[in-house]
Each structure stands twice: as C-alpha cells, then as structure tokens.
Design brief:
Largest interface: A-B, 51 and 53 residues
CATH topology of the largest domain in chain A: Rossmann fold
Number of strands of chain B: 7
Number of helices of chain B: 11
CATH superfamily of chain B: Thiamin diphosphate (ThDP)-binding fold, Pyr/PP domains
Strand content of chain A: 15-25%
CATH architecture of the largest domain in chain A: 3-Layer(aba) Sandwich
Shape of chain A: globular
Structural class of chain B: alpha/beta
CATH topology of chain B: Rossmann fold
Strand order of the largest sheet of chain A: 3-2-4-5-7-6-12
Structural class of chain A: alpha/beta
Number of domains of chain B: 1
CATH superfamily of the largest domain in chain A: Thiamin diphosphate (ThDP)-binding fold, Pyr/PP domains
Helix content of chain A: 25-40%
Order of helices and strands of chain B: HHEHHHEHEEEHEHEHHH
Oligomer: heterotetramer
Number of helices of chain A: 12
Number of strands of chain A: 14
Order of helices and strands of chain A: EHEHEHEHHEHEHEEEEHEEHEHEHH
Radius of gyration of chain A: 20 Å
Largest sheet of chain A: 7 strands, mixed
Distance between the termini of chain A: 38 Å
Largest sheet of chain B: 5 strands, parallel
Radius of gyration of chain B: 20 Å
Bound molecules: thiamine diphosphate, magnesium ion
CATH class of chain B: Alpha Beta
Chain lengths: 356, 332, 356, 332
C-alpha cells in the first residue's frame, strides 16, 4: 500500500471487497487466533490470560477471557502451553519472551495496561530493542507486545498512560497504533509476522468500536499512514484514538466551510514522513493531535519533520493539540478536559486559519 | 486477653467500619456515583486492623489498589475517602486520585498505589527516614501488598535492602489466594510466601489473617522488633476477599462455593464478636452501639460526598510541580 | 537570571567575580559536599559510593571515590548513614529514596550509568513524578538523581545512552543537563534545594573538563537557558555535551564568516521557550544539536516549539543534528560518527544558509 | 573419577584457554588495542568449564559483563572474540558489541549483557522454547550471573517463573565475593545466596567454585534434572576473580592480601593439574601439549584481531531493524 493511492480509508484495493461490520475487540481476538493457527511458533503470554485455574482439575477457566477479553476462548482452543499465564512479573516474563524470541519462537505478550511497560522497561529497551544491533545482526527478536492505553475510563494516573512516544524514541523497537477494527487486524497480523520487536498500543476507548473489516487475510505495512479523509484547507494528523477525534473535528469544520484532510498515522516507529509532507504540501496548514503529553512526543516529532521537510509549503505555524504536561486526573470532568477533544481541534484550526 | 478495652473497641470499630465502608462504596459505585474502578477489601479486615492497632500517626504504611482497609485502619476520614471515590474537591486527594490513590500524609499513609508492588520500597524509604533521624522507636514502615505482588522483583529488592540496612520495616503480605482470577497456588512457587523471608535474613511468620487477635499478636512482635532496632519482619496473612477483584467482577467464575463458605465461616468480625462476648470483654450492647455509630458515619460519608463540589477546572494543571509556575496546558 | 540580560556565558552578575578554573568532577563533588553541610536532611545513595568495606572493621574504604569519583572523600567525612551504599537494586533503592523524600529527607541518588534508569523506570515515572499530582498536592518529592550519559568512551550499547528526552517527557519530573563546571555547580545545588524530583544528566565527556567557577554560593534557576555566544546569522541550540560541540562549530563558522549564536539549554524540563524564540527572532535560522536519538526527542521538541511560536521569524527549515536512530556501536570510528560532531553542525549550517 | 579422557582434556583446555585469553586480552587492552572497557574473569574458570562440560550447542547460556569465560566454555572462537574486543569487522559481533556484548547464537550463546541481571530471564526464555518444542532433554538454559546480580529483582522473578512453569533452567550464581568494590557480605542479606532457592521451590546447592570437579558434579545433577523435565536448580559457585573489577581497577584497594592468597592457593587450574596427575589421568606432557596449543591459539587470536579491517562506515546504520530499509541517519 503506497499512501499516495490511498483514497479509501481502508487503503487501496478495499473498495467493494467482502467484509463485515465488526467490533474492535472481536477483530483483535480473531486476529490473534488466526495468527496462532497460521504459525505454531506463535504463542501468547500475560497475566490472567487463562482466567484462573480449577483447583482440582488444574484446567484453565477463562473466567475473564483475559484482560479486556482480548483472549476469550483461546485457552480452551490452544491450551495453557500456547496461552501461557504469567505471575505478576513484567520484567521477568517480558525477558523470558525475548529469550524465547531469540531461540526460535514468536511470542506475543499482553501487558494489560500500557502503564505497566515501565516495570519491564529495561528488558524492552536494553534487550529487545538492542539485541540485533549490538550483536552485529546475528539475531532477530520476533516479539510482539500489546497493552491498553489512554484516559477516559476513570482509571486515574497509573492506569491511563499514552506515553507511546517514549517507545517510539527507542531505536530497534517498532510501534503501531491502530485506530479502528480495520487497522487493528492488519497491524496486529503484520506485527506478529514481523521479525523485529513491535509494540501495539491499543487505546481503551477503541475497544468497543465497530467498523468495516474485509474478510480476507491482509497486513498493513508497518511504517505507513493513511488518509481517513481528503481535504484542501488544513491537515489534521491523528494517531490511535485521536484519529477519531480528528474525523469528528473534520465533520464540524466542514459545517463551517473548512475542508480538512485527516491522516491516521497508524505506525509511530517507523512512521510515514511522506504522507505528512504530501498532505502539508497541499493544505499548507497542519494541526497534530495527540493524547500523549506534549514534551518530546510524537506530536513534537511530526511537527519537527514538517518544520524541516515541508517548511516551504507551510502558510502558518505548526500546531499541536495534546494532553497537558500532567498525569491523568481521576475526576471525570478533569479527565475529559485532559483528552484532546474534537472541539479543541476545531478551535485551534479556526484560530490558525484566522476563521474566528 | 492482653488487649485494653479501648483497643478492643477501636479494633471492632475499625473492622466494622472497613466492612461497611466497602459495602457502602459498592452500593454507590453501582448507583454510578463512583467515577472509576474500585477494589473492595471486605473479608480482609483483620490484617490492617491487627497491624495498625500498634501504630501511631508517626508510623508509615504503604498500600495497594485494594487500599480502603489500610486507609481506615490508619485513621483516614471516611467522608474524605468517599468524596475522593466520588471525584469531589473535598476528597482526600481533591478528586484527582480516586480509589486507587487515596493517601493522607498527615496520618502516616503513603498512598494506595495502582502499580502492583510499586509501593513496597516506599515503606522501606519511610523506615530509612526513621533510622536516619534516630526515631525508629516511634516510626516504623509497614508495607501492605498481596500474594500477586509477591512475584514482583521489587519486593525482593526491598526485602534485601531492609535487611542489609537493618530498617524498621514490616512486610505485610495479605495472601487472599488470588491475584485477579489467578490463584496463588498457580503463580507462587512457595507453599508459604513467608518461607522466603529466611533467605533475606529476617523472620517470616504465617498468620491466620481472618483472626484479628492472631494478627495483633504477630504484628506486635514484629513491630516491637522494628522499634527496638532489630530490623525487618515478614508477615504472611492468609485472608480472603469476599467480593470479586473489582466492583464488577464475579468471583464465582473462578472460585469454588466451598472455598468461599470456608472463609465466610471464619469471618473476622463474627470471630471477634464471638470471642469478646464469650470472654465477656465487650457486651452485645456495646457492640451494637459501635455498629450503629458506624452506620451513621456511612450515611454521613455518602451525604458529604454527594453534596460536595467538583474540583475547579484549574485543578487539571495544578500540582504537577511545586516550584514551577508555568503549566503546559496541552499546547492547544 | 533573566535570559535577555545574559551576555556573559556564566550569566549576569558574574563578570569579574572571584573564582577559579576547576575540573567538572571536582566541582560536582564539592557541590555535593556543600549541600550536605548546608542541610543535614541531604544524604547520598548509590552503588559503590562507599567503595567497599573493610572485612574486619566494617569501615568504608572509599576505594573508588564512588562511580566516576563523584563522591571521593565524602564517606570519610559524613559516614555511611549519609553516604548510603546500596546493593544492585535500582528499582528498590530509587523507591526507597522516594519513600524517604515523602517522609522528610532530601535524598540524592547516584545511578552510575544513565542507562540504568530503565531498571528503576517505574519508580521514577509512577511514584516520583506522579505522587504530588495524584495525591492532590498534599506531598512533595524533594529527590535528586544523577547519572552519566553519552557515547565516546567505548562502553557500547548498554552504557552510553543519552535518552534524556524520555525523562523530559514525564510530567512531574524535572531534568537538567549541565555542560561545564559553572553550570553543574549551579544546577546541582538548585536540584538538591528544589522540592520536586530533579534528574541531573551528566555526560561522561564533561567529567574532566575545566572551566571558571565563581567561589560564591549560587544556584541556576531550573528551566532557564543561557547564551554561550552571541551572533546574528544562525542559532545553534546545544544541551549537555553538544553545547560544547556547538561552540566549536561556531568557532569554525566564524572563520568562514558566519556569525553563529549559541544557546546552552541547561534545563530540559521545564525548558526555556523564551530564549529559543528570542534568538530565532534575531537570527531567523536554527540548528538544534542533540546526542540523543532523534525520534520524539528534545531536538524534536525544540523544533516543534520554534515551528509554532517563532514560525514567522524563520527564514529556512528548522534543522536537527542528532545521533542516528540506532543504539551506540562499540567500534571507535563508528562511535565517533554516531555523536554529532562540530563538523556535522558546520556542514548543516552551510547548507541551510546556502553557503556551500 | 567418572569423567572421560576427552572431557578431561576439554576441561583443561577450556580453563587454560580462559586464563590465557584474559591475560592476553589485558595485555592488548593496556597496549591500547581494545576499544573499550573489559572485565577479566581469570580465577573464575571452574564454573563455566564445569557447567558447559555438560552442554551442547543446542543448550543455551546467558552471560554478563564478565562473559569471556562463558563464551569460551560454550565454544566461541577466541580469534573472533579478540577481534570483537579490538572493534574489528571480523569480530564476533562485527565490532559493534565489544567485550560486554559478545554473543554467538550458532553456539547457543545468548550474549554477554552489560545490565546487571538483565540476561537472567533470557535463559528462562530459552528454556521455555525448549519446553514448548518438547526438546527439554536436549536443550536447557543456563543463566550465569554474579553475587551482585542476586540483588536484582529480575532474578527472583525469573526463579519464580522457572519454577511455576517447571522449566529446564540452571541459575548459576558465580559468587566471587564482590560486586565492583562492594563485598557480598555487605550487599547480600543471606549467608548463602543458594538458601533462597527453597523459597522458589527448587534445590539450591552451594558449590566450591574453585574446584572444577565439584562444579562438574553439581552441574551434572542439575542439568540431568532439567533434561528429565524436573525443573530448575540454583547453583551458587563460590569463586574469586584474580584481577580487579575491570581492566584498570586495583582490587588491593578493597581486598585483603590474605584473602587473595587464600584463593590463589585454590587456583582451579593448579588444582586440576594436581588432581589429574596424582590420579594419573593425564600426564604432565599431555598437559603441556595443551598449554602450548593454547599459547599458539592466543598468538593467532591477537594476530587475527590486529590484522582485521575496521567495520564499514555503513555498519553504523545497519541492523537496527531487519525489515526496515530506511535508516534515520542522524537527521544531519
Ligand atoms: C505492575 C502491575 N501489573 C499488573 C497489574 C494489574 N493488576 C491489578 S491488581 C492485580 C492483582 C494483584 O493481586 P494481589 O497482589 O494478590 O492483590 P489483591 O488484588 O489480591 O489484593 C493485577 C494483576 C497492576 N496493577 N500492576
Ligand atoms: C543494572 C546495573 N547496575 C549497575 C551496573 C554497574 N555494574 C557493572 S558490574 C557491577 C557489579 C556486578 O557484580 P556481580 O554481579 O557480583 O558480578 P561480578 O562483576 O562480580 O562478576 C556493577 C554494579 C550495571 N552494569 N547494571
Ligand atoms: Mg491477592
Ligand atoms: Mg561478584
């Protein structure tokens, strides 16, 4: 898929193909399942992914279907060797997953809440991301990790993080951020089949979203963005859940005669510089929307790339709409104010275009 | 029994307060008055009560996602706790922390903590302060954590540090048999978690965590050791949570009815009542008066929470730093 | 110190004051010592900072003077309670330091190599940085941490990191990056006296550098940058060791008639937006130089701020000269190529100004 | 003695090779031919030798900053190792890893690792692969680490995981008494680190790590257990490093001469020589022939390293990823 052809939000080749309206979480689970069937070296690891065990029979109970029901039914189908339940030891089991990836398996790790990345951070940065390089290319780390990010569910400071920019900062690690059922299918499959370590960040707010998903097997090339909407007046850059906020903002802008183009980055590392430049070359105005906190973030990175490589196309300052530089508050009103809302994007665009 | 009347009253009040707080909190949660996820600790009243019975406001405790019991036993105000869970400005943390982050530094409560295991070294640090200041005799650190948390490396680091530095710390492991749906028999490679203590040069004691008197005795010894400068102790308190992992969890999906019944039969509050009435230490009337007072307190707590205002919109940007006057308001 | 007055690289008020030419490492140690004398709640913690113990007497030996000799002599002077030697348990002892800070002490933690931050990452992010906010302002975390960053010493991938941008990303944590003996004295003192958690990142390449240091007690306000050199043609933005690379580049540029202004950021979080805007408003051209890897970095952040708030002043694209998006290689030639060199800066400036 | 002649020869060759490699490497380092920091392991030859004597290329080991001995015992080529330390293109990692990151995946060597403790779970993961594939009998994981690393939480997490999952892992703790200058008696809260094993449901064995035969026996049992699917074992190998922590460190600043002498008297190579000659298993002539061959090998290794080319400038950008063709070259 080359971005310049992508006029359909799903990407080229997806006009009129057979498919269904599906829920994000079901697509996620079905994709895991399909990849496990496809390749028997693929296995899952994480806390509570077997949902408890019967005291007498020692059989897994699948009481919860795993965190956020992401693995529902899989332990019955694949058994506890391939759905490996882990004690609460993120550093230890992420390290073990890396070790298994270095020796021939393709582990997929469920880290539950994105915030828990910090506990396994050394294993991710010092081992997963560096092994190939520091050992001179003699090995590979076909590891996939996923976790749920984002505010909006009353989980407060330690269960609502979106600091994917810190992961994207790390050379050797790839980072993808699906924003709908279509993209999670293609990105999760691509991540699992990729021979480099890939982290899939899954905003909680997406989990019950529905959307059209082609029946066929497909992957989305890591490192590519897509257009969710074509427009001429301003480029809105979204990632993960903010792609949805951007679409809503574009709808509102259309009502007042502003024709916004919406890009969904889908991958944060590597990411699609070309689509950013291509779009800004056309619209000459850009607003980047990110739920991560602002400093040294992906919003900063996209702004920096545009300010370098699309500078001559710019008619106005490069704007970012992000979370504030603060932890996530508990109170619902504060939490809503914390997240970039479509209205914040609209306000920023109007100011940028002098349309007030 | 070697426990003063006042202490007995305090213990009963505390256990009943925890029980009723959790039940009231769940009611409010199901009514939609909580703004987030809550983890009830009813059934687990004995460990915080039996341990905190030995503590003053100068002692410090660290807590977990399942922290209401620890808060109450350490003397936090139930109205401010309820208001916090309701996300109100009058809440213990101004509505910014919620159930998983209730703290009260004026009471020696270092905060509930939603990263499993992460609060353990904080209690070690509090004990370090005590030792540094030469006040171990009046300030110890108690770290509450679960069987699930025992698999976190930071526990082991903390135990080693406390032992190497000979700090006044109690490692209080509330083993309720489960971490979410995962049974301890699956995730813990020791039959008794306390058996690990010896490898860290400290006593490890297994305690019936449904019996507040047993907890009181074991904790008394451990805390006396700590206050005397003899270093850390590990207590494993075998206990049970009556409800699911969090408010909306149905534990029957992964626990057997017989097992639940076994612990219900050992109910810490009933056991306390039976013991003190049998030994004629407290009368049924006295017990009732305490219960009535707690019931009223809960009504008051809910009313206080419901009638309290929301935090100011500016609270979003406050207290990221102390000495930094220029908040970055989302670059919008 | 307001940046606009700062015509002396040391900052205003430092013309002609008594002082000496001192080595960075000695200033570092002397500042630690002075702060420990000043406030008896200040204590140090870290691995090997007592340099071993005599088997018989149990007395500390100070065999190494601590990692990089940063604490030489201090254990004899202050004793092992205030120079607290820690087992290799970064998460545990950083957590303990946070706990002691929450209960009335002012710990200063030596993390040895900057790379080891990853092992204590959860304690830093989830506890140190968030406690004040998530507990509604009822507490403070007067914790200082320091560690040695940077490539250039043949330590390879796991002992050469400069990922300070990840720390600066974290709301609640402050980050400072001294670049010479003058700035390390003022920033370290300020960090220790500050009531928020502060991380001081100390590039290894600075350790034996000498420079003028006033005798008097002073602090440098956290969040302020300074001009190391005034110029009119282009702004070079440095931080930590790259401030030195920028100065060298400015010398070389002067020889070919390009008059560069050099900013040393000194603080990365909070940072001095004003000095960036002020300088770019004058020079209209900017090159940001950073040894950290590029994606979602402080170089990106400075570029993004300039592309937003100084957009109208810009004559040319915002340029970054950074490390590549890769771990640090061992081989010396590769390692030198990894680090931004003055020549790289000069080449970039010439291209930017069309001076080729 | 129940060890084949071939194995004895291998053991002597391996120990002598380690010893001479470290000495040669130090020489080259002081000549300025190493590009970075090196941590010699002479004195500690017995643990890697006695353990790896039971392993094949299908078994996996994880290693540390002090990893040359592990590499050699696992069969790595000393010329490629020397070239790596010299930063050359022909080095084991193409000159990009250096002394602290030597790896050879074709030999079952998961890499030296410069973050203390970080390689431990990697060996657990290798054992998981073996169990997953049903080849525990021919592929176990061995994790080498030091007394200092025993304070890292990830060790304890790894022990618990290996035990809960019943994986074929050996935890080989080389207790050389020091972590940098810090003595184990200060930093470790157990008299024997192996005493912690029981709390993780696995045997813990203290072994004389200066005696390769003792190591061989203990490791044989542990590895047999692992291959039989009986799960992990913890070995604590009491050993000593003759040199300082790294090439430029003077250990006399923090170690007593008597202590150093005590271990020199137990030198593993001399002990081996005395044993095999006394028991007439190998002749002095045989031993000498091995030593001579190793001496020549070292000359060859240095020559190979010195004559090898530098890596290509493009190597800076290679192998950050496999499937990613567009390196970000520093945005210059
Ligand atoms: C580091 C981390 N990993 C996982 C979780 C998710 N989680 C929250 S509570 C819990 C179970 C904790 O079990 P235990 O320590 O026994 O405490 P209990 O819930 O039984 O009181 C888990 C896995 C978390 N909050 N933090
Ligand atoms: C996480 C981490 N902390 C600290 C260091 C610095 N360091 C390198 S080796 C070492 C001592 C290790 O001691 P031990 O595990 O006993 O191994 P030995 O050096 O004795 O072989 C230390 C502290 C490190 N490399 N990684
Ligand atoms: Mg539990
Ligand atoms: Mg050691």
């Amino acid at each position: 898929m080359t971005t310049s052809q992508a006029n359909n939000p799903l990407g080229p080749g997806y006009d009129g193909v057979p498919g269904k309206e599906l829920r994000f979480r079901d697509v996620f689970r079905d994709t895991l399942r399909a990849e496990m069937i496809r390749d028997e070296d693929v296995f899952l690891m994480g806390e509570d992914i077997s949902g408890g065990f019967d005291k007498d029979t020692k059989e897994p109970l699948d009481a919860w279907g795993g965190p956020f029901a992401a693995t529902k039914g899989l332990v019955q189908e694949f058994g506890p060797e391939r759905i490996r339940d882990a004690p609460i030891s993120e550093a230890g089991f992420v390290g073990a997953a890396i070790g298994s990836a270095l020796t021939g398996l393709r582990p997929v790790v469920d880290l539950m809440y994105f915030d828990f990345v910090t506990v396994a951070f050394d294993q991710l940065l010092s081992n997963a991301a560096k092994s190939r390089y520091m050992f001179g290319g003699q090995t590979r780390v076909p590891l996939t990790l996923f976790a749920r990010s984002g505010a909006g569910t009353g989980h407060a400071a330690q269960h609502s993080e979106s600091f994917y920019s810190m992961l994207a900062h790390i050379p050797g690690l790839k980072v993808v951020v699906p924003s709908d059922p279509y993209s999670v299918k293609g990105l999760l499959a691509a991540a699992i089949r990729d021979d480099d370590p890939v982290f899939l960040v899954n905003d909680k707010k997406l989990i019950n979203l529905t959307g059209f998903v082609p029946d066929e097997d497909y992957v989305i090339e890591l490192g590519k963005g897509r257009y969710l909407r074509r427009g001429t007046d301003v480029t809105l850059v979204g990632m993960s859940y903010t792609s949805i906020a951007c679409q809503k903002a574009a709808d509102q802008l259309a009502e007042i005669g502003i024709d916004a183009e919406v890009i969904d980055m889908m991958s944060l590392s590597p990411f699609d510089e070309d689509i950013l430049i291509e779009s800004v070359a056309k619209t000459h105005n850009v607003v980047i929307v990110d739920e991560d906190t602002p400093r040294a973030s992906m919003a900063s990175e996209f702004a920096a790339v545009i300010a370098d490589k699309a500078f001559d196309h710019l008619d106005a300052p490069v704007k970012r709409v992000t979370a504030p530089h603060s932890p996530v508050p508990y109170n619902r009103d504060l939490e809503i104010a914390y997240m970039p809302q479509p209205e914040d994007v609209v306000r920023t665009v109007r100011k940028l275009l002098g349309h007030e | 029994m070697d426990i003063s009347k006042e202490k007995l009253e305090w213990m009963y009040t505390t256990m009943y307060r925890i029980r009723r707080f959790e039940e009231t909190m769940l009611e409010q949660t199901f009514k939609g008055n909580s703004m987030g996820v809550t983890h009830p600790s009813d059934g687990q009243e004995a460990p915080p009560t039996g341990i905190c019975a030995h503590l003053t406001e100068k002692d410090w405790i660290g807590s977990t996602h399942r922290g209401h019991g620890h808060c109450i036993a350490k003397g936090l105000d139930t109205s401010a706790m309820m208001a916090e869970i309701m996300g109100k400005a009058t809440g213990q943390c101004g509505g910014k922390g919620g159930s998983m982050h209730i703290a009260d530094f004026s009471k020696g409560m270092l905060g509930a903590n939603a990263i499993v295991g992460a609060s353990i070294p904080l209690a070690v640090g509090a004990a370090l302060t005590a030792k540094y200041k030469g006040i171990e005799n009046e300030s110890v650190g108690v770290s509450f954590f679960g069987d699930g948390a025992s698999s976190q490396g930071v526990l082991h680091e903390s135990m080693n540090l406390a032992s190497v530095w000979k700090l006044p710390v109690i490692f209080a492991c509330e083993n309720n048999g489960y971490a979410e749906a995962t049974p301890a028999w699956y995730a813990v490679s020791a039959s008794d978690i306390a058996s690990r203590a010896e490898g860290y040069g400290m006593p490890g004691v297994v305690v019936d965590g449904m019996d507040v008197f047993a907890v009181y005795d074991a904790a008394g010894e451990a805390i006396a050791r700590a206050r005397a400068g003899e270093g850390p102790t590990f207590l494993e308190l075998k206990t049970y949570r009556y409800h699911g992992h969090f408010h909306a969890d149905d534990p029957k999906k992964y626990r057997k009815p017989e097992e639940e019944q076994f612990y219900l039969d050992k109910d810490p509050i009933k056991h306390f009542e039976a013991t003190v009435t049998k030994q004629k230490l407290m009368s049924a009337k006295q017990l009732k008066a305490i219960r009535d007072a707690v019931e009223q307190e809960m009504l008051d707590a809910v009313e206080f929470g419901m009638n309290s205002p929301m935090p100011d919109a500016s609270a979003l940007y406050d207290d990221v730093y102390i000495n930094y006057s220029n908040p970055i308001q989302g670059l919008r």
